[in-house]
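can u do me a favor
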């Protein structure tokens, strides 16, 4: 009986493979999120010469567009499935960060940060949808595993941007998450599992 229970427990454990793929996408998103949260204001003010009252607008645009993107994502996911919104979001997020990197002035950077928040907004909620689909027993193991990538991305993001800024410049530092955001496009097919037995809703996630 104990052997049978142990075997059933092992069988119920969510597989690592799909979770690693969506987790890598989560890490990329949180690298961008950490970079924006920690460095956007300094970048707009110091590198682009914005006034003190303009500099925080980059982060405000990022957070505001992230919220709008998540509120609007249900319709897109229900219509197209999870893969296309993630792939398109990766394109938009990478384009936004590229605009930040190449910005000739503060307002272009503000728009770029807004596009970043809008494009990458759907990735994390859908990653948790994948975790839910891969954990039908509701053990919470899959969600905990996805959360690991969240923490890694946020910690790595702040240090990575700071290190590149120290060695090169803060402007070039934002090219790093811009390039990494392209990885979200490649990882988008891993989110297909979120559509099993019906399309999962990407409601606002932490």
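np, heres the sequence
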């Amino acid at each position: 009986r104990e052997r049978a229970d142990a075997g059933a427990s092992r069988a119920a454990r969510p597989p690592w493979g799909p979770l690693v793929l969506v987790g890598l996408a989560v890490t990329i998103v949180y690298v961008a999120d950490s970079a924006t949260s920690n460095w956007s204001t300094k970048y707009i003010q110091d590198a682009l010469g914005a006034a003190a009252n303009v500099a925080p607008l980059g982060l405000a645009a990022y957070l505001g567009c992230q919220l709008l993107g998540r509120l609007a994502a249900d319709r897109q996911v229900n219509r197209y499935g999870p893969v296309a919104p993630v792939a398109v979001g990766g394109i938009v997020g990478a384009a936004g960060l590229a605009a930040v990197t190449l910005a000739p002035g503060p307002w272009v950077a503000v728009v770029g940060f807004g596009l970043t928040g809008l494009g990458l907004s759907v990735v994390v909620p859908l990653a948790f949808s994948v975790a839910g689909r891969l954990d039908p027993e509701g053990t919470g193991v899959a969600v905990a595993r996805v959360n690991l990538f969240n923490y890694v991305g946020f910690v790595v993001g702040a240090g990575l941007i700071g290190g590149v800024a120290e060695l090169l410049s803060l402007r070039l530092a934002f090219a790093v998450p811009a390039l990494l955001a392209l990885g979200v496009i490649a990882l988008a097919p891993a989110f297909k599992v979120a559509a099993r037995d019906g399309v999962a809703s990407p409601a606002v996630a932490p």
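Residues 16-47 form the longest helix (32 residues). hope that helps!!
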